[in-house]
Amino acid sequence: MQGAISIIFFILILSVVIFVHELGHFLAARRAGIFVEEFALGMGPKLLQFKGKKPSQAPREEGEEPEVTLFTLRLLPIGGFCKMRGQDEDVPEDPEAMNNKSVKARLLVIAGGSLMNFLVAFVLFFGLTMLRGFPTTEVQHVQQNAPGYHAGLQSGDRITHINGARVGTFEDLIFMLDMSAGQEQEVRIVRDGERFDMPITPVRNHEDRYVIGFHAARRFGLLHDPPTDPNIPFQRVGVFEGAVASGEQILSHIRTPFRLLTRLVRGQNMPEGGGVMGPIGIAGEIVEIMPVVMEFGVMDTILTILSLTALLNAALGIMNLLPIPALDGARLVFLVIEGIRRKPVPPEREAVVHLVGLVAILALAVFIAYRDIMRLI
């Protein structure tokens, strides 16, 4: 029963994330004066549909009803789309067709989906940060005889980089240490306004994670009472600090795929949990996590759902901006080329690139789905 509820949660979260993305395209298209023929949530046969109120301004025959946007809900909750006039075909002399808009307007429309994902992710991360607080990259206490202790790490130090890579969140720090594989790392810290590097070699702890041996200072959220231990400093999250931390979380999700890709190209081992995971794998993780979370009560369940929604919004936002054929990122590349050349790439050539990319993506999706299923088994 709980497994079924977890799957329903996953479908709802995924539907919300896709809706947010397509809403970004829709609002940007409306602002640019592009007519949206259909706004759909889901794929496959239509379950529900209704017509919008804003009519198209395109010329029409006398007595002909003006075209309006069709809003539809479809059977399969695995996607969605925002069909804009002139997006994939040439519609001459139509002021509401996308192909007749400026390069700048089309850039904003194509990027609108990811920008909306980032905006929603920021709002959710900010709310969660203000409620739950967050661990910082500041050192509160150094464990004796740990690698950090022998390297000279002190209370009050703030870790900013590892091997030259920015560390903006505590999750960044954990990720970078996991990628170290026990090799010496150049850790940059800020102490009393001064920056300097110190070599530290992480070691495995009892949880099979690489650590350097310190407790991070924490900012407490509105849901927390002051700690009973007087040795633990109590400092609530400020609004500005919460906004900065929320932005850092999004930047962390943007940086991580490129760090993993660089590691893959170099033939280095992936960190624990660093492999690629598709919808089936994510669903499997949620099915495993949600029953445990639901035992802690309604509030923890709601916060976990909001956290997953924020994570998936950030992930979908960056994924769609990657310059992969058939995704928004590749369309942005073609628009940039058009802006530089002062003329568009021939549509048939662009279509071939997107078709090849789509086939490659589908093949990759099948491979990832197979790996996810084998992992679950």
Please tally the helical runs, counting DSSP H or I stretches of 4 or more residues. Answer: 9
Give the name of the CATH architecture of the domain at 133-242 and 249-277: Roll
Query: What is the molecular shape?
Result: elongated
Order of helices and strands: HEEHEHEEHEEEEEHHHHH
Give the strand content: 15-25%
Query: Kindly state the mean pLDDT as a whole number?
Result: 84
The CATH class label of the domain at 133-242 and 249-277 is: Mainly Beta
The largest sheet, given as strand count, sense and whether it forms a barrel, is:
4 strands, antiparallel
Q: What structural category do the secondary elements indicate?
A: alpha+beta
Low-pLDDT runs of 5+ residues are none
CATH names the topology of the domain at 133-242 and 249-277 as Pdz3 Domain
From the N-terminal CA to the C-terminal CA, the straight-line distance is 19 Å
Outline the structure in words.
The chain has nine helices and ten strands. The longest helix is centred in the first third of the chain and has 31 residues, at 2-32. With 377 residues, it is of the alpha+beta class. Helix 1 (2-32) crosses helix 6 (279-294), helix 2 runs antiparallel to helix 7 (298-321) and helix 2 packs across helix 8. The radius of gyration is 24 Å and the shape is elongated. The mean pLDDT is 84.
What order do the helices and strands come in, and which of them pair?
Blueprint: H1 2-32, E1 36-55, E2 68-84, H2 103-132, E3 134-142, H3 147-151, E4 158-162, E5 165-166, H4 170-178, E6 185-191, E7 194-200, E8 203-204, E9 210-211, E10 214-219, H5 239-265, H6 279-294, H7 298-321, H8 328-341, H9 347-376
Antiparallel strand pairs: 1-2, 3-10, 4-5, 4-6, 6-7, 8-9
